[in-house]
Amino acid sequence: MKKASEEIVDWMQELYEGNEKAIAYFFKLHSKSLAYFTTRMLEDKAEADDIVSKCFLKVWQKHKDFKTEQNIKAFLYISCRNACLDYLASLKVRTAAQENYIKYLQGGEETILYDVVQTEVLDMVNKEIEELPDKMKIVFKMLYIEEKSTAEIAEELGLSIQTVRNQKTKAVALIKNSLVKKGVSNALQLAFLFFITK
Question: Which residues contact 118 (CB under 8 A, 6 or more apart)?
Answer without folding.
Answer: 191
